[in-house]
Amino acid sequence: MSGRDPFCQPRRIRRGAALTLVFASVLVAGAATGALPQADPKSAPDEARPAGRAGRHAEIARAAEEAMADGTSPVEAARRAVSRSGDRWDAVYSRGEYEEFEDALDGQYTGVGLWARSREDGRVAVTKVRPGSPAAAAGIRPGDLLRGVDGRSTDGRPVTEVVSLLRGDATDASAGTTVRLLLERGPRTWTESLRRAQLSTDSVTVREAAGSVTVIRVDTFTKGSGEQVREAVRHAPPGAGVVLDLRGNPGGLVSEAVTAASAFLDGGLVATYGVDGEQRVLHAEPGGDTTRPLVALVDGGTMSAAELLTGAVQDRGRALVVGSRTFGKGSVQMPSRLPDGSVAELTVGHYRTPSGRSVDGRGITPDLEAGDEALQRAESVLRGLGSPS
Description:
Pdz3 Domain; 9 helices; 6-stranded mixed β-sheet; 6-stranded antiparallel β-sheet; 2-enoyl-CoA Hydratase, Chain A, domain 1
């Protein structure tokens, strides 16, 4: 690996490029990864580092090679090897999944418009439905359980497999093809047949609220979303407070979250993170608006890169955080190619907020607890703060 900080460099979204993926932007979220450049598993002898990520990669690569030699699925063999690690964020993607995810980073994807994540009991719960999507037209709502896809149970399945089923990767399904979902809402269980569609992420939306408040909502951190946040802050009316709505945001491109943080900070530390024991830092760019009142809005669906941003503005006294405790996903993954072209993403470390707090497994506690009325509370707080002097 080079000494360059990959999170702070421009990303080229190409086949084989460093991948930082928001699963939610491509239909279903159980993980939101912060990924480093692909590693070369031959860069050092395996016996010199058997307990690290490289050692785990070598084990997974061997499983894939053996499956190829036996004529069985190397992806399934690699996934079985990954499952033995016990790390819930380790995952394997087929070549097609990886390429589709890269495309999704440009803001376009084929799907049904669901955001969801795996619960602790192994079931998959819908967290958000895209307006105007096939899922919205079918009446699917946040809180519904996704129990099956095309006759296959989703309970206990790795998120990567659920994504693959929804997208129809096994058959190279395209927009217009049908996918049948088994859903559960309270005592009711039913099926819906949806036609996949070509959708755009539209991850940042901006609106003006009463009382000189600008609400900036970020659904996921995809390519360009950080700069969209900065532009929204630059064009907010003079004196207007900002609500940065990160509820249900499962994370995404860490570099974009750092750019978004730069909208509110004048340089300085955003987070630290470890890569196989080596500590590195993420810094905001100078020149952000440090005087405009800011409230960050979070909930249990706020994950990964969104938590990194929240922790930065909270620790540095830049924002009041309103809502409920965040998810607690603070691990960093590195993707590397397997012999058949599939990709293994393995955890290499964890990030910490500027004050040194670990987010992983803990989440971020808001300064002001609020439930369904969180947005109204945030707007009220900003009106009470008034214009910056």
